[in-house]
Design brief:
InterPro entries: KR_dom (IPR057326), NAD(P)-bd_dom_sf (IPR036291), SDR_fam (IPR002347)
Radius of gyration: 17 Å
CATH superfamily: NAD(P)-binding Rossmann-like Domain
Number of strands: 7
Keywords: Oxidoreductase
Number of domains: 1
Pfam family, one: adh_short
Oligomer: single chain
Organism: Desulfonatronum thiosulfatophilum
CATH architecture: 3-Layer(aba) Sandwich
Order of helices and strands: EHEHEHEHEHEHHHE
Number of helices: 8
Strand order of the largest sheet: 3-2-1-4-5-6-7
Shape: globular
CATH topology: Rossmann fold
Distance between the termini: 24 Å
GO cellular component, one term: membrane
Length: about 260
């Protein structure tokens, strides 16, 4: 990936510091590179320390400061460490919660208890932890940014990903609650589109009682050429944030809303 940082035309968030979860692969990794490329300082997070370090190395040369905190973002001590690291960089401006988990294939009653909980921890509990840790700081400074990765799954019923659909509905509603409770902080939902990521391949190769129905949907995305790259999806969010991010407050946006 090529990092471009045009100092003569600075991005709206140039020099700001953001927390970014899910940064070890897929859209999260592409987003880390894209944001660093426009001068955003980052504290990146994911559970895989090795892949997270690779992401950080991909940001070298951007001119931005990129630090890493590996671990499960649904744990308070991990998110608290991210906030502390942002303070070391020079202050926190907000967060982007790109982490997520699918566990596709089984009917909802077939899904193991620990798998159901893991989906909600990655999508919803981690979102809460970011809110809990960041909002006191952001409210004291009177402005900031909170971006939650949503999904069209939040408003659909799709056999084989029941936990994910429910978790995304909960996460999107949590973002709307935050928008209502803290109107001075820009809180928004970004739906990244149908992206060729590990989740897509997991769904295409899923097993379980609802796997056949799920495979038909996800294989069709690929066969019909509907998939976009992680880089294209990340670019969509960066473009949305490029001009007057406050206009995004309380809304649900997707990769097509680049204007």
């Amino acid at each position: 990936m090529t990092i471009r940082n045009n100092a003569s035309s600075k991005h709206a968030l140039h020099g700001k510091t953001l927390l970014l979860t899910g940064a070890s692969m897929g859209i999260g990794r592409a987003l880390a590179v894209a944001l660093a490329g426009v001068g955003v300082n980052l504290v990146i997070n994911a559970r895989s320390e090795d892949r997270l370090r690779e992401t950080r190395e991909m940001c070298v040369g951007s001119g931005a400061v990129v630090e890493e905190i590996a671990g499960d973002a649904s744990r308070s001590e991990i998110v608290d460490a991210m906030v502390a690291k942002a303070g070391d960089i020079g202050g926190l401006w907000g967060f982007i919660h790109a982490a997520g988990l699918l566990h596709p294939g089984p009917h909802v009653w077939e899904l193991a208890e620990e798998e159901f909980q893991a989906v909600f921890q990655a999508n919803v509990v981690a979102a809460y932890q970011l809110i809990r840790a960041c909002m006191p700081l952001l409210l004291r400074q009177g402005e900031g940014l909170a971006v939650f990765f949503g999904s069209g799954a939040a408003v659909k019923t799709q056999p084989g990903i029941a936990a994910y659909c429910a978790a995304k509905a909960a996460e999107e509603h949590l973002a709307r609650q935050l928008a209502a409770e803290a109107p001075q902080i820009t809180s928004t939902v970004y739906r990244p589109g149908v992206v060729e990521t590990r989740m897509q391949s997991q769904a295409r190769e899923s097993e379980g009682g609802a796997a056949r129905q799920l495979q038909q949907v996800f294989k069709a995305f690929k066969e019909q050429g509907q998939l976009i790259t992680p880089e294209e999806s990340a670019a969509g969010l960066v473009r949305l944030l490029s001009s007057s991010p406050k206009r995004l407050h309380g809304g649900t946006w997707d990769v097509r809303d680049m204007g």
